[in-house]
Design a protein that fits this description.
- The chain has 52 residues and is an all-alpha fold.
- It has one domain (2-50).
- It is built from 4 helices and no strands.
Amino acid sequence: MARVLQTTPNYLLGYTYSDDDFLSEALSLLEGIKDETIKIVLLAQIKAASAL
């Protein structure tokens, strides 16, 4: 699952900490979404935007 989402197992298990308000808010929003397809699409969009 981590490979598909292009993240780490630690991230998926909630073992991350960040004092970055945007990152914390994005993570909170993603955790609230139940549809896995929507999560994958949103995560890809966030990653694309962060590369700009």
